[in-house]
Amino acid sequence: QEASHRFALPTSGSGGAVKQENFVLSTSGTDQVKGVMTLQGDALCQADVNLKMPRNNQLLHFAFREDKQWKLQQIQDARNHVNQAIYLLMNRDVNYQFKTGLEVLKLMDAVMLQLSRARNRLTTPATLTLPEIASSGLTKMFTPALPPDILVNFYINLNKLCLTVYQLHVLQPSTTKNFKPAGGSVLHNPGATFEFGSQRYEVSHVHKVECVVPWLNDALVFFTVSLQLCQQLKDKISVFSSYWNYRPY
């Protein structure tokens, strides 16, 4: 229940509306990329990104269009899994009596599966190829439009909201003799190559900035505690079930 409440975040007196939270994304030791993100539940509703181009120190600024929001599927999925775990526990009559230890073990297994999936959605970002990032709807969210040599990606990693900016350069036909496109990855390194449209590119610079989202940290802690409680109950059931004359009451 505590983990589930972290994903709702209603503000008092707002009729259940989810509050907006502002986060500054940066990294120590460099000011190549800075971002200010507004997170509302599972949606990025505003984003302002400043990018300093290394070639000429030109400063570029991009922001979400006012009519656009970007859903963070990881948060949405984690919330759905924890709510499913709660449903599994609550969808019985209040006076229901479990008849066997095995019945309890099966329920705990089902609940733990949902809790593990919820946690894994936050701890394991999706691996994407560079063409998948390039064709993502995220690239069309910004005004002014992103130049063709810039790619961006948002994702959740544990308790952090992460922004990765890729700067590209076009590969000339003479340099693509042994062209080998990069596969899927959470974070692509400089030197990774890919083909998009009719053009081949190489990643020249990668910038990753991030910030801690406190309520995601809370949710991860509650997932861990919940899984431990489920396992403790399973262990107790297993101990009692080892006695041949065990009967649940």
From TrEMBL:
The lineage of its organism: Eukaryota, Metazoa, Chordata, Craniata, Vertebrata. PANTHER family: LEUCINE ZIPPER CONTAINING TRANSCRIPTION FACTOR LZF1 (PTHR13618), PROTEIN ROGDI HOMOLOG (PTHR13618:SF1). This is Protein rogdi homolog. It holds the Pfam family Rogdi_lz. Belongs to the rogdi family. GO terms for cellular component: RAVE complex; synaptic vesicle. It comes from Alaudala cheleensis (Asian short-toed lark). Its main location: cytoplasm. It comes from the Eukaryota. The gene is Rogdi. It is found in: Cytoplasmic vesicle, Secretory vesicle, Synaptic vesicle. InterPro entries: RAVE2/Rogdi.
